[in-house]
Structure formats: structure tokens, C-alpha cells
Amino acid sequence: MAKHDKDATFVGDSRISAKRIPNIAPSYSDFPGKSEPFWPNFLLKEWMVAAVCLVGFLILTVSHPSPLTDKANPNDTSFVPLPDWYFLFLYQLLKYPWASGDWVVLGTIIIPAVAFGAMVLAPWLDKGKERRAKKRPVATGLMLVSLVGIFYLTWAADHEHSLHHSSNQAGGGAVASGDPNFKPDEIWTKQTSCMGCHGNNMEGMVGPNLQKIGSKYSAEEIEGIIKNGKPPGMPAGLIKDEAEIKKLAEYMAGLK
Amino acid sequence: MIQKMYDWVDERLNVTPMWRDLADHEVPEHVNPAHHFSAFVYCFGGLTFFITVIQILSGMFLTMYYVPDIVNAYESVKYLQNEVAFGVIVRGMHHWGASLVIVMMFLHTLRVFFTGSYKKPRELNWVVGMLIFFVMLGLGFTGYLLPWDNTAYFATKVGLEIANSVPLIGPYIKTLLTGGDIVGAQTLSRFFAIHVFFLPGALLGLLAGHFIMIRAQGISGPL
Amino acid sequence: MSEKREISRRTFLNYALMGTGGFLAAGMITPMIRFAVDPLLKASAGGDKVAVGSVDEFGPEPKRVEFKVHTKDGWYESDSVLSAWVTKNDKGEILALSPICKHLGCTVNWNDNPDYPNEYYCPCHGGRYNINGQQYIGTPPTKPLDEYETEVKDGKLYLGKIKPNPRPGVSE
């Protein structure tokens, strides 16, 4: 701005040039081909995209209130911790035996450092002039492999968590509603494999409460569940004796 | 009237050249979705910035009610979400926006990567962009603790344990972030300070650098 | 001709841009502004009136009562103890005065200074009020003692919110 020009005149004793530049937009013919000025042509398109996104975003915020679980309680051992979704792939990585225990350095430092380091240094690792993705097979290939890895790890972490979490919830809900005065029949108290999860009095522990199971399932359905299991938590084939299963299912279907 | 005011300012500060430079720079055809629909991939950078603006604004407003203290943090979040008008929306904007900004930034990074736009002469801008990515992840990590609910508490605990497992410096990093021996009162106020002052400050500086470099170099040419 | 068309197109685009920008700004800011000004628009809690005793207990001589108020300040709820000087004149009108001195917020007492009998006296700077809470002109306070909203129901006196005392100051 303040060039040492002999003829330059300034506003007062400042370094602002006294010569005014007219505030006029150039004619569209100044832009070659299909180029266009940023203001207002292109910005308008960009803002219209932003407006569409904003509407969608506001609908999301209204329809899905942000979650808020119970107040932090360090003694709550039943809570399965889970980081925010975009950290899940790192979190999942540390669950694998080759990236934990003695190898934890691999999971916490080496793999992330190599991956993120390679990203930061990409311009120096991939110095070729070619810009098209297809003409840079190594860079493109590595990126695609990492993308698949990230997506897989994120999915795996979420999948494992949902398995844990749903059984957790069933257990939590059942304990609260268990009737302490409920006394199950002898046919139940013989089934130690059932009692391990559903409790001595069918009040529910890891597995759900069964004290009123007859209002939910018929005898045939209960038979099927005992034989074939029920995801996520109920294993198949814990009772081998067919007659025993039938007797138990009939008893349970009568609990309403 | 407005013209007179503009002229008055312009005479003293010569703002016209700056403004014309911003308004009149040309946008080439290959990034304009009106000409090639596939050019919408060039929108992700702008959308990232747009959501960042939402994040900054909603964050500013949330601090009107939020208290970074283990006794009151949860209560204040619950209060602002359930009892203050539009609290659901403002907290929702900040909560979902945090996820959305990561998604947009991820897509923007992929666009830059697959169009090879990080190559000479734009290496520095790529590095600044990567730093922005890390700052955003840091904002996500520190912000996650602030509502002080179970999700927040245990996720942070796990995160800090991961930091702890780093050889040699791990325990120091952990103590530095926790501010004490346990995840508690001191951790929360530390995370609040990092989330609200340190990282946003860094973010604004990096964003300014990112934009100045884009204006200086122009957008990368067509493939 | 073509020059003219270009200008009008640019103007149109400018207006469209302002419109879109306005929509964006409004969409973002409106919920946040409403969020921020909520305390202004929230109907004040009204404050349930608290019973302090039977009306018969009070006479022309000021009597001090203490009562508990439940305050809800955002997410912070607490019980605070307030006190009042209550008088009932011959017509049965009840006046409940706040003991907070209007000068600097000390607590006034009835008739506890032998020099100033039958007055509210503030020990901090010697502020003085008569039985109706009117300040004596020339003593530090410039306003009369605040009074509580009162209500008599089923022979019981209920005190509500504090409101300013409309009575003017008096000279000795």
C-alpha cells in the first residue's frame, strides 16, 4: 500500500493512499468462459446449499434431542463406556490382541502415528506431478485400504457394543421389576443353567425377568427359545432332555 | 446515506481493494455445481466452515447456562436442555454439529486427497488442514466430557487410560489432562478451558491461515 | 442495452444473496437468541405466599417473624430464611416490612436503641425509620423500608414477594 512513489499522496499523515479506487464490480465479460465472480454468483449457490443443509440440520436437532444419560457415577460398574463415534475405530483397534497387552504400543502409538504421519506428510510422500486418483495407484490404494479399515473398525466397535448393551438393558430393567415374593415351581429350581442368568426366582439378572413370561410368549414359542436360543444373550441347547423342555415351557407359559 | 458512510470509512481505511478482491475473484467452472453436478464435492470445505460457525455460536450461547463443575455441570445441562426454551435445539445444534463437522471435514479431506490438490504448491495448506483436523478431534474429545453424565465420564476415563498406556510420556500426558489423580473436578475444569479457550483459539488461527492460503494460491485447477 | 441487463441481473443476484444469507443467519440465530432471552420471557415464578402465623398475634407494636422460602434459581434450589416486622393498625391493615436497610443493606431493629425509641434503627450508619418504614429525612437512607405482599386467609397471615414501599420520607 505505502509504496515509495514520488507522486504518492496520502490521507493526512497516514499511509492510506489518497487515490480512491472506484467500488465497481467488473463486468461479467471480464470472466473467461464459464468462470464467474465469487460475489454474488457463486456465493449464492453455496449459501443455497448451506440453507438446505441448515434446514435438514434443524430438523435433526428438533427430532432427536441430544442424549443425556445419568449423572456421572464412578461406582456404576454396569455402564459400558463408549467414546464418541469418530474415535471408535481407534478404540476398537486396542481390543485386538496384537494391539493390546504387550503390543499396546503398536495400537496406541505406532499404527496411529504411521497413519496420521503419512496423512500429514502426504505431499512429500506422493511427489509426482500426476493429480488424478487413477494415475496414483499407491496413494489411492493405501487411502482406500485405510478407509475400509476405518469403516470396518467403527462398525465392529458399534456392533460389539450393541450386543453388550442390549443384554445390559434387559438385565437392568428386570431387576427393578422383579417380584421378591415370587416363588417358582420345582421344575424351574432344577434348571441351574437357567438360574445362572435369570435368577433363582426368575427375577432376572443378566437375562431378563421371566416371572410373567407367559403373557409374552406361548408354550411353543418358549420351547423354541430354549432350544434355539435368542440373540443377543440367550444361548441355544442348554437343556438336552426334550420332555424336560416341554414341561418347563408349559409351566412358564402359565405364568401371567 | 449508506454510500456516504462507506465513502467516509473508505477514505480513511481504503477498504475497497480488500472488499473487491474478496468479491471479484473468479470461481472456475470445474468447481461450480451449476455446470458439473459432480462439482458438489467442492462444497464440503465451505460446509465444514458453515457448521464450524454454528458450533462457535451455539457454544457461546450454551456457556450462558453451563457451569464447569462436577456438582453443577450435569444439573445445568439438564436444566438448559429441559427447562430453557429452545434449549433442546441449541444443545442439539452443538451436539449433532460436532458429529457433522467431523463428517464434513472427513469428506473435504477425501476430496482434496483424491483430486491430488495437496501437491505442489499447496503442501503447506494441506498440513494446516491436517492440524485443523486434529484440533477438531481434540474439541470433540474435550467437549464430550462436559455434560458430566455417565457416557461422558466413562468415555473420558477410557480415553485417558489409552493416553496413559503410551510409553515413557504416557503417565505425564494423563496427569496433565486429568489435573489430578482421578477424573474429577480438576479434569472437568481443565477440559472446559481447553475446549472453550485453547482449542478454539488455535482453530481460528489455523482457519485464517487456511483461507489466506486459498485466496493467495487460488483453487486447484481441473483434473 | 446488454450493459443494462447485466446490472439488473447482478442486482437481482445480490438481493437473492441477501435473502439466502438472511435466512441462514435467522435459522442459526433465532433459536439461540430465544434461548438466551428466556429469563426475560419466563413468567416469574410468582412465589407462593408463606404462612407466618395467625393474624391475632399481631398488634400495633411491630413483631418480628421469620419464615422459610424455597428459592429455585435455575438448577440450584435452596431454602432461605427471611424475616419481617409485622404491624397491624387500628383499622386491621397489616404492614409487613423487610428489615433490610435501604441505605447499604444492614438489618434494622425495632426500638433497640434507647436514643431513638419506637423507631426502626439501623446500627451501621444510624439510619432511622418510623413505624410505617418511612425514613427520617436527614438520616442516611433515601427510601422507605420495603414491604412484603400480604394476604389474610382463614385467619392466617401469608407473606409474599417484596415490593417497594410507596410511602414518602418524613422529617422529624
From TrEMBL, chain A:
It is found in: Membrane. Keywords: Electron transport, Heme, Iron, Membrane, Metal-binding, Transmembrane, Transmembrane helix, Transport. GO terms for cellular component: membrane. Residues 173-256 form the Cytochrome c domain. The chain crosses the membrane at residues 47-66, 103-125, 137-157. Residues 28-155 form the Cytochrome b/b6 C-terminal region profile domain. GO terms for molecular function: electron transfer activity; heme binding; metal ion binding; oxidoreductase activity. Pfam families: Cytochrom_B_C, Cytochrome_CBB3. It is a multi-pass membrane protein. InterPro entries: Cyt_b/b6_C (IPR005798), Cyt_b/b6_C_sf (IPR036150), Cyt_c-like_dom (IPR009056), Cyt_c-like_dom_sf (IPR036909), Cytb/b6-like_sf (IPR027387), Cytochrome_c550/c551-like (IPR051811). Coiled coil: none annotated. Gene3D superfamilies: Cytochrome Bc1 Complex, Chain C (1.20.810.10), Cytochrome c-like domain (1.10.760.10). Its main location: membrane. This is Menaquinol-cytochrome c reductase cytochrome b/c subunit.
Automatic annotation (TrEMBL), chain B:
The chain crosses the membrane at residues 39-67, 96-114, 126-146, 192-214. Signal peptide: none annotated. One of its GO terms (biological process) is respiratory electron transport chain. It comes from the Bacteria. GO terms for molecular function: electron transfer activity; metal ion binding; oxidoreductase activity. Its main location: membrane. Its cofactor is heme c; heme b. It is found in: Cell membrane. Keywords: Cell membrane, Electron transport, Heme, Iron, Membrane, Metal-binding, Transmembrane, Transmembrane helix, Transport. The keyword DNA repair does not apply. It is a multi-pass membrane protein. One of its GO terms (cellular component) is plasma membrane. PROSITE patterns: CYTB_NTER. The main subunits of the menaquinol:cytochrome c complex are a Rieske-type iron-sulfur protein (QcrA), a cytochrome b (QcrB) and a cytochrome c (QcrC). Component of the menaquinol:cytochrome c reductase complex. This is Menaquinol:cytochrome c reductase cytochrome b subunit. It comes from Brevibacillus fulvus.
From TrEMBL, chain C:
It comes from the Bacteria. Its EC number is 7.1.1.6. The chain crosses the membrane at residues 12-33. GO terms for cellular component: membrane. It holds the Pfam family TM_PetC. CDD domains: Rieske. PROSITE patterns: RIESKE, TAT. It is a single-pass membrane protein. Residues 86-159 form the Rieske domain. Component of the menaquinol:cytochrome c reductase complex. The Rieske protein is a high potential 2Fe-2S protein. The main subunits of the menaquinol:cytochrome c complex are a Rieske-type iron-sulfur protein (QcrA), a cytochrome b (QcrB) and a cytochrome c (QcrC). Belongs to the Rieske iron-sulfur protein family. This is Menaquinol:cytochrome c reductase iron-sulfur subunit.
